[in-house]
Specification:
2 helices; mainly alpha
């Protein structure tokens, strides 16, 4: 199976973070073990999203430098 382009990964990360937030909103009684796993997953997704945002910022700066 081919890897998704990074732009799709970023979108996927945001969707997954949204699902995790919805999961927390839907809980009437919080299972702390399940919540911990969700928080760990969200932290991984946030870290990956920040990395991709930095890459995007660098690409913009490179394009800006080429056009000046």
């Amino acid at each position: 199976m081919a890897a998704k382009p990074a732009k799709d990964d970023f979108k996927h990360h945001l969707e997954e973070i949204g699902k995790i937030l919805s999961w927390f909103d839907a809980q009437e009684e919080l299972d702390v073990e399940a919540a911990l796993l969700k928080i760990k997953k969200a932290a991984e997704l946030i870290k990956a999203s920040r990395k991709r945002l930095k890459e995007i910022e660098n690409e913009f700066e490179e394009i800006k430098g080429e056009t000046e």
